[in-house]
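note to self — DONT lose this again. spent like an hour looking for the file last time. sequence + predicted structure for the chain T wanted, 174 res
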Amino acid sequence: MSKAVFCIVKTRIQAEGIVDRLRHVGFVNDDISVLMPDKTGTRDFAHEHHTKAPEGAVAGVGTGAAVGGGLGWLAGIGALAIPGLGPLIAAGPILAALTGAAVGGTLGGLTGALIGMGIPEFEAKQYEGKVRSGNILISVHSENSDETSRAKDIFKEAAAEDISSAGEATVGKK
């Protein structure tokens, strides 16, 4: 059964190390999602807020230049602005889930997207709180128990927190 394996890390360096390890053991870039606060664009976003720009999650452009290293390898890196959560950088299937949640007007932003990915509501709310406080959420798609175990081992070796897995819902997978 397909699963999504999740963890929280505190730093971008940790996230890049995990993504590099996942890539090294055979996970493809379409299977890995990263969601992090966009700290570089916060000031710019604040200026836009005062212009009464349309609210809602908005996919941005130009994020690739701001995200380098191991994270630059990930598929579909984009900037989002989610009301109540602020500016974020997302890559992988979670970007599609967040965009779909915003367009569909479903449950609140990140929590709704995570529930849509198969995470129980309680854990989804915890992850949203962690991202809101500046942490980075990483998820990886696994096709079988070996891949799930491999991903969890990589997360543990990198001192990631809140490691869990959930049966996967459809999120624009190949």
